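Researcher: Go.
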Amino acid sequence: MEIFGFSTLIMVLGMAIVFIGLTVLIVVVDGVSRVINKRAPKADASPINVGGSEETFVEDPSLVAVISAALAACLQSDRPLAVQSIRRIAPRQASAWAQAGRRDLMS
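Model: Structure:
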């Protein structure tokens, strides 16, 4: 019976040490992120260029708005987003693995 009490004490002490260590780690990481965010320069409102070429395949402004909203939701950035061009990636340019990965992400 004495062994059970000692082992329970060791277990509780170990869990307390891990809990305190994780709490200290959370506080340190939060403090470092606050210091980094204070020192980081404020981002300007310059647009993000998404397209790489001059040709645009999308002519429907509502489709451009939907794609812009999806990008803004995915990026979750404080900077404003301005989509300048949208071009379709031809299936022959990507490998079969890349196409499968895109399909997996979209489903």
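Model: The two ends are 57 Å apart (CA to CA).
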